[in-house]
UniProtKB/TrEMBL annotation:
Top-level taxonomy: Bacteria, Bacillati, Bacillota, Bacilli, Bacillales
The keyword Transcription regulation is annotated on this UniProt entry: no
EC identifiers of the protein: 3.1.21.7
Role of this protein: DNA repair enzyme involved in the repair of deaminated bases. Selectively cleaves double-stranded DNA at the second phosphodiester bond 3' to a deoxyinosine leaving behind the intact lesion on the nicked DNA.
Site (Interaction with target DNA): 84
Residues bound to Mg(2+): 44, 114
Entry-linked InterPro entries: Endonuclease-V
Subcellular location: Cytoplasm
CDD domains found in the cross-reference section: Endonuclease_V
Source species of the chain: Solibacillus kalamii
Record's keyword terms, sorted: Cytoplasm, DNA damage, DNA repair, Endonuclease, Hydrolase, Magnesium, Metal-binding, Nuclease
UniProt name for this protein: Endonuclease V
An annotated Gene Ontology molecular function: endonuclease activity
Entry similarity comment: Belongs to the endonuclease V family.
Length: 238
């Protein structure tokens, strides 16, 4: 596959149109009974460059929602053909995400992404975009704030579980959530087929004393660094 030139405005317009066409399929309501969630899968990606070529690996770590124990881990890797540009992350990452998801022995009840969902210029962050293909509820969990239309996030109180809504044009895009006292907050947003209250509840239920990040995302992040190191050492993907 040829590398995609995102400096081509025609292509950017095409990708924007795809996002706009998918938006009506986004439903910020629960499509499930929260009490029936048994497994959650964390998703993250890591990259590296070899000879001017970018490679990536996507790791998915599924946990038991009740015990927080790891149920399964899978990964995919390959050449990245879409350069990074803000607002179009899903087009860069989705191929590897879907390839990794196919390797899961069992489908998780919910996916949690290291990235944004509804908190996006066109409400189509990776967590939301991926839901269209994974056919499961999704949540976006970001470590840094995506500033949209000049709107700053408001710092929540220094109490675990406190939050402030990210409101743009009178619409809630996501939340700035304090998951641990005396530690920087994270930024969560609905992906799809889930509401913001349930997203907040699930994220907080997946927090332990190891990190400000929910367990599925933290474990997926750790796994991507581990797999990337192995692939580089074995000259795979490069």
């Amino acid at each position: 596959m040829k590398k995609v030139d995102l400096n081509n405005m025609k292509l950017i317009n095409e990708l924007t149109n795809i996002q706009n066409e998918l938006l009506p399929k986004v439903i910020l309501e629960n499509s499930f009974d929260v009490n029936e969630i048994k497994t959650i899968a964390g998703v993250d990606l890591a990259y590296w460059d070899v000879n001017n070529t970018t490679y990536g690996t996507c790791c998915i770590v599924m946990i038991d929602y009740s015990t927080k124990e790891v149920v399964e881990k899978v990964y995919s890797y390959g050449e990245i053909n879409v350069p990074y540009i803000s607002g179009f992350l899903a087009f860069r990452e989705l191929p590897l995400v879907l390839e990794a998801a196919k390797k899961l022995s069992n489908e998780p009840d919910l996916y949690m992404f290291d990235g944004n969902g509804y908190l996006h210029y066109r409400h189509m962050g990776i967590a939301t975009h991926a839901s269209m293909y994974l056919k499961k509820p999704t949540i976006g969990v970001a470590k840094s704030y995506l500033k949209i239309q000049g709107v700053d996030s408001i710092m929540p109180k220094n109490i675990k579980g406190s939050y402030t809504n990210i409101v743009i044009n009178n619409e809630i895009y996501g939340r700035t959530l304090r998951t641990t006292e005396n530690v920087k907050p994270i930024f969560i947003s609905c992906g799809n087929w889930i509401d913001i209250e349930t997203s907040t509840e699930i994220v907080l239920n997946c927090i332990n004393n190891m990190s400000r990040l929910p367990i599925p995302v933290r474990l997926a992040d750790i796994e991507t660094h581990k797999i990337r190191k192995q692939l580089i050492e074995n000259d795979l993907g490069g």
